[in-house]
Amino acid sequence: MKALEGIKVLDMSRILAGPYIGMMLGDYGADVIKIEQPGSGDGTRKWGPPWVGDQAAYFFSANRNKKSLTLDLKNEKGLEILHQLLETADVFIENFKVGGLAKFGLDYQSLKEQYPRLIYVSVTGYGQNGPDKNKPGYDAMIQAQGGIMSITGPQDGMPHKVGVAIVDVTTGLYATTGVLAALNHRHQTGKGQHVDVALLDSQVGWLVNIAQNYLANGEPPGRYGNAHPSLVPYETFETADGHIVLAIGSDEQYRKFCIMAERADLWEDTRYQTNHGRVSLRDELLPEIRKTMTTRRSEDWLNSCAEITVPAGPINTIDQVLEMPQIKARQMVQTVEHTTEGEIKILGPVPKLSETPAEIFLPPPALSEHTDEILAGLGYTSDEIEKFKTEEIV
Questions:
Q1: pLDDT tens profile 227-262
Q2: Is 128 helix (H, G, I), strand (E, B) or coil?
Q3: CATH number given to 8-206+349-390
Q4: How far is Cα 64 from Cα 56, in angstroms, rounded to an integer?
Q5: Residue 122 φ/ψ, nearest 5 degrees
Q6: pTM for the whole thing?
Q7: Is 168 one of the annotated active-site residues of the chain?
Q8: Among residues 42, 90, 107, 168, which one is catalytic?
Q9: Which overall architecture, per CATH, does domain 234-315 show?
């Protein structure tokens, strides 16, 4: 049995944050129908290069474990078909602008009256209320507005965004936990609810300790490059042949590192024996550590740190990451058979559940791949389905 077996999800979202929710629910075994515009589909299908056949690789990143149904909601019959699906749906995902679905009668209040058990998920830039609710929101601008860029990048350089669309991804993660909570609430009460998730809220939410530090001391944090505001030494260091990350999180780890590095003097100086002291005196301590780190090769440092259980790691490129034996052992890269493109490699699910493991049951779908199957399941004949296609309803 799958963890979410029997849960039916209608995913009307596009791009990344919304589709990520549907994908994760699908990983846990939910039956996810991706509803797309006939002829064009999700915009990320064309967000290339790179391409896999005529599909953009981007689309594959958030749409595994889904079936594709194309449906023109501006057509009365298309809307009727959607309502047939809603009659048995458990979760409805949308990322239209606030109020954008009201004209179709597909807003939360309308569907709540018709389908009181439905869990309705809205993903927007700023949420369903507040002075900015009608503004559009996109990952890069939310990274800037939400504060992460102010603390990312070199101390004296330009602010940097994170290299992945991290706001979209974390919004998808927050929303998924909201859906699971809502499903449990419905299990207890029989009532659905509105899961309202905003990109900006998500960005602020994952400021975690940085935001809490400000709330505690009232001091806006600055940029530390690859360093840590509360731990020293905890950053990237140049070695004799490259760079590694040293992540010392305790006084004992620091002591062991100093002895291994043949810099006992940096431990014997009592000013550096506590993390508080090291943070306060980072400007005089770190130059000494940097000078020492350049005396050995990266591999030597990594091996020596591993022997004394001091956290240190290489700075891998993406190709190196995806070839790591540990990543392969954890099945984080999987090969699936795509309908039109043959064998393709995609990332695998992250959580490893012992009894109901998350799995890839379906490859990312070709546009409209499952339209006939879904409509037939609703009782439509092959002749009726062909007529819908001729009229561009599906």
A1: 999 999 999 999 999 999 999 999 999 999 999 999
A2: coil
A3: 3.40.50.10540
A4: 14
A5: -115, 125
A6: 0.95
A7: yes
A8: 168
A9: 2-Layer Sandwich (3.30)
